[in-house]
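Hi F.,

I've been meaning to write this up properly since the lab meeting, where we talked about keeping a consistent format for the predictions we share between groups. The idea is simple: the sequence comes first, exactly as it goes in, then the structure tokens exactly as they come out, then a line or two of notes. No screenshots and no reformatting. I'm using this chain as the first example so we have something concrete to point to.
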Amino acid sequence: MAALIAQPRLEKFLATLSIVFYVASLFLPAFRFSSTDPFFKLAADDFNAGIVILLLGWMETIGPGVAWLANPAWILSHVLRRRGRLDKALACSIVAVCLSLSSFFVRELTMNEGGGTAQIYSPGLGFYVWFLALTALAASLVVSRSRMIPNKSLERTRER
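Output, unedited:
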């Protein structure tokens, strides 16, 4: 009986942790940059907060930066989870995690609407916290899904 009570708590905890991590990632440094644009000067150790990457990331969705699309997939997954459509929420969450994995291969980001780019030297703490937010939601939905699947071994022990 204790396991049946613990799973909903774990599911809610992971979903809440996902939101907390996501919000925290917006205020943490996302990437370490150096500019390749002469009009957009950056020092070698400059960082941009995650909120800047969130606001400007849509400009990369055509090229190699499809990882930004993990953000709308994550939001949709939360909305579907709240509406009780756990299978669709899990699918969206898995898509979000898979899209976010592509960000490990991005080496350059557009930094302004004029097309100025900056080379990525390394991910920052905000990047990893963002990735944890996406995976925490996926874990929450896996826990929720496992609660929905009947355990036949438990049913056999109850019959005895």
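Notes:
The mean pLDDT is 79.
The two ends are 17 Å apart (CA to CA).

If this format works for you, I'll send the rest the same way.

G.
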